[in-house]
Every structure is written in structure tokens, then in C-alpha cells.
């Protein structure tokens, strides 16, 4: 077992709320600040920079797009945003009012796919801003995070429907109910093993679903840890945040879990990514990014 070194880097004031983080094409970390309405950038070892948006727009998830820019959701303003690595911002208003976009991911078709939590829809936006929406059937489902699967589809968590969904490039939706009732899945990510991994915030579990829909769930040591975000690491493991437990955890493909306490109490870890330096980085809502690596960085 390799020792994990955790370092925290203050990137904003406590009220700004760093929420999600991703690795950009420029080798920097890009992150949203949900409370202050900003997008931040941090080159490991450097100083953070901040780009202001509408202060009340509520930027949430951010990802690298196929066009060399960063794309993000504006949950409160009901828009999709795009920011270049130079800091130029363009925002796209969505067709459905008050739809609450949350998750976003680049698809295999060269477009960005996103969830509309308040409208029970999956959206698709091209890099020139053309939007298509696909309605989900059934009762209130609250689609949250979304990821591109290894099978050519987009996979997403249905938080209130207690299921994992898949949408094909033709708009066909398949829903896979979870074995655990009221598990409330949130984060999803595709693993190196070709399966989609997800976290169950209400059940304190990590789940794995294969392209054919076979599901396995792994209970965490602290079932009250409220896992929130998940990402594939560079070591073949999946890494996840425990928002309620103030921890970062890893899980191997066969379900072995290891957890690491964050140095600052109640730091509220949310988004997580495999960083440009090979370490795992997470956004702490209390104003910092945390780095987990095998060696410290000055």
C-alpha cells in the first residue's frame, strides 16, 4: 500500500464554494465556484485565477470539451456555459425554462450531454450551441451526473428514481433500477474496466454497472459518509468523495475500499478528478482544492 500525502490549496474565500473540478487541455485544473458564480483555474504549483460570471448563476459541473474549451452547467440560471483557456465566456440559454442543468460530459459524437434535474430531461448541445432535449419517462427522477460509457452511450444517475440510466446517440433510454432502495445515486464515472461506477449518497455505497446492466454494490466503512463525486484514477482504481464524512476514498475493481481523512474538518468535498500531475484532486466547498498523491508538491 502506497502512503497518500494530502495537501490543501486555498483558491477562494470560504463563501465562494468550490464545487466541481476537472483537468483542462492546458494542463491546469479548472473548477466551479457555485456560491460566488465564478470559474477558477489552478496550474499545480502556481497561483489560482478567477473568472467572474453572473454571481447568482450557480455554476456546478465542469468538463473539458472536444473543442479545446471548458464547458459547465449553470444550475440556477438554467444555462450551459463555455470558457476558453484564455478566459473568454459564452453562455447558452436552454429551451426548457427552469430546467436546472447539473451534470455534463463530452459524448462520443463530438457534442456535450447534460442532465436537467428539474425537468427530467437529458440534453445535448453541439459546440456551436445547438440544443436537443430528450424527455425521460415516468415519475420524478432528478437526473444528476452523467458520463460517456465505454459502449458508446451516455450513462447517468437518476437520483430520485433510484436507478442508473443510459441514453444512446439516437435518444433511446434504458433504465436500470438499483438493488438497494432509496440509495439516491449522484456521481457517475466510467472506469478503466469498461464499467460505469457510481456513488449512492443516501446508502453509503459505491456501485458498478456493466454495459449489459449487471449491478454490484459495495458498502463503505462509514455508511453515513454521503459519497458524492467519483472519478477514474490513473492507477486503475476509482476515487470518490465522502461529503458527510470529510474523506476521500478509493476502490479497486474487485471492491477493496481505502479511505483518507481530509486535514481540515468539515471541508465539504464534492467534485473530484484525476489531475494533470497524476494526483487526485478534489474541490472543497470551504474554499480550497485538495491534492492526494504519493509525494508532496512544493
UniProtKB/TrEMBL annotation:
Binding residues annotated for Mg(2+), in chain numbering: 268, 285
Residues annotated as catalytic: 270 (proton acceptor)
EC number: 4.2.99.-
Keyword hit for rRNA processing: no
Top class in the EC scheme: lyase
Subunit relationships: Monomer.
Protein name: Virginiamycin B lyase
Provenance organism: Pseudonocardia charpentierae
Amino acid at each position: 500500500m502506497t502512503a497518500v500525502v494530502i495537501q490543501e490549496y486555498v483558491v477562494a474565500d470560504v463563501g465562494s464554494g468550490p464545487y466541481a473540478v476537472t483537468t483542462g487541455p492546458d494542463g491546469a485544473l479548472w473548477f466551479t465556484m457555485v456560491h460566488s458564480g465564478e470559474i477558477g483555474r489552478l496550474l499545480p504549483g502556481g497561483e489560482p485565477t478567477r473568472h467572474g460570471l453572473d454571481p447568482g448563476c450557480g455554476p456546478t459541473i465542469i468538463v473539458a470539451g472536444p473543442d479545446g474549451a471548458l464547458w459547465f452547467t449553470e444550475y440556477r440560471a438554467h444555462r450551459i456555459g463555455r470558457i476558453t483557456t484564455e478566459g473568454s465566456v459564452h453562455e447558452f440559454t436552454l429551451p426548457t425554462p427552469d430546467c436546472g442543468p447539473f451534470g455534463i460530459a463530452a459524448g462520443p459524437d463530438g457534442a456535450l450531454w447534460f442532465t436537467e434535474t428539474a425537468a427530467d430531461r437529458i440534453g445535448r448541445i453541439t459546440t456551436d450551441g445547438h440544443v436537443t432535449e430528450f424527455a425521460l419517462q415516468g415519475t420524478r427522477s432528478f437526473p444528476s451526473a452523467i458520463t460517456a460509457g465505454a459502449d458508446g452511450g451516455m450513462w447517468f444517475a437518476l437520483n430520485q428514481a433510484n436507478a442508473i440510466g443510459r441514453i444512446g446517440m439516437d435518444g433511446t433510454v434504458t433504465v436500470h433500477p438499483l438493488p438497494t432502495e432509496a440509495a439516491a445515486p449522484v456521481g457517475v464515472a466510467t472506469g478503466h474496466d469498461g464499467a460505469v461506477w457510481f456513488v449512492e449518497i443516501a446508502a453509503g455505497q459505491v456501485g458498478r454497472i456493466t454495459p449489459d446492466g449487471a449491478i454490484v454494490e459495495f458498502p463503505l466503512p462509514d455508511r453515513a459518509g454521503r459519497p458524492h463525486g467519483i472519478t477514474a484514477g490513473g492507477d486503475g482504481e476509482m476515487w470518490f468523495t465522502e461529503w458527510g464524512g470529510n474523506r476521500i476514498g478509493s476502490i479497486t475493481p474487485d471492491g477493496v475500499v481505502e479511505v483518507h481523512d481530509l486535514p481540515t474538518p468539515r471541508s465539504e468535498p464534492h467534485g473530484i478528478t484525476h489531475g494533470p500531475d497524476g494526483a487526485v484532486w478534489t474541490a472543497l466547498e470551504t474554499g480550497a482544492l485538495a491534492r492526494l498523491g504519493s509525494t508532496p508538491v512544493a
